[in-house]
Amino acid sequence: MRTIAVGSAVIGPYADRLTVIAGPCMAESLDLCLRVAEAAAEACGSVGMHYVFKASFDKANRTSGAAERGPGLDEGLRRLAAVRERVGVPVLTDIHEPWQARPVAEIVDILQIPAFLCRQTDLLVAAARTGRCVNIKKGQFLAPLDIGQAAAKVAAAGCERILLTERGVSFGYHTLVVDMTALPQMRSLGYPVCMDATHAVQRPGGAGTQSGGNREFVPHIARAAAAVGIDALFLETHPSPELALSDGASMLRLDDLSPLLEQVRDIDRVVRGHRRPSAPPAG
Asked: First CA to last CA across the chain, in angstroms?
């Protein structure tokens, strides 16, 4: 299994610590992005974790067509670039159409493929060809090993830095469940694995014109995933989730980030010590 470097972050089985990917769901404003990035970077630094900032410039899969979508490509990339420069951390954002891959890759360190789009071949190939790291979120409709086909498309297009993210699976109407055995199954494909602990507690379309969620379960998912063994932890966080323009019901309150990371760090250290290989593979 490869260990991948993204800016200052090292993700994979030969990394000595967990990487946290965290930020608001939407890049609502530059001030919000900077506030969250600075707080999250400080929280990760204090517990000895690598940090990657995330935020979306466009929420193209909102439940309602009347819902807020975000600042758009140009302004969104300006905000992400500012975070990368001022806070000095790697940045991740998602793309929804193949043509977005190239301009987004000029600004960010990781291109993310949304879960609903993880089988879109043209999107996967376009992301791969930028040379950036590609994070593929496993669709809620896929079995764990099925995401291997998406990873194979990215690898065939020349990308060697691939991250796979679990975010739960559909279980009836408006409900997601997390099968923790999905994590070692996905890791068996040969790529670092990330657990999205906030989208995993989402209730898709469960609030009528928007998705609901149960943010009180985020710490449980995060701690459980760390106990199973992961390479990265994905968390959406906001100073006031109830005021957020997207996914507020499932986002972690920013003030709760640091104490949760302390718990996850302690669990990860125990698990990482048991499963860390003694030497990297040849080549």
From this structure: 11
The pTM assigned to this predicted structure is 0.92
* DSSP string across 13-51: TT-SS-EEEEE-SB---HHHHHHHHHHHHHHHHHHT-EE
Tell me which residue has tokens 């997601």. 176
Selection from 226, 214, 210 nearest residue 260 by Cα: 226
pLDDT band, residue 20 (cuts 50/70/90): very high
Say how far apart CA 45 and CA 258 lie, in whole Å. 10
Q: Is the per-residue pLDDT at 281 higher than 50?
A: no
Roughly what angle, to the nearest 10 degrees, separates helices 257-275 and 30-47? Answer: 50
With CA atoms as reference, report the closest residue to 51 among 28, 26, 83: 83
Place of tokens 């996850």: 264
Residues 6+ positions from 261 with CB-CB distance below 8 Å:
20, 43, 44, 47, 49
Q: Select from 176, 183, 209, 127 the least CA-distant residue to 13.
A: 183
The mean pLDDT value for 106-113 works out to 98
The owner of tokens 């449980």 is 220
Calculate the CA 1 to chain-centre distance.
Answer: 19
pLDDT, tens digit, 9 for 90 and up, residues 27-43: 999 999 999 999 999 99
pLDDT at residue 250 is higher than 50? yes
d(CA 249, CA 217): 11
> Which backbone phi and psi does 6 adopt, to 5 degrees?
-135, 100
The CA dihedral of 34, 39, 41, 45, to the nearest 10 degrees, is 160
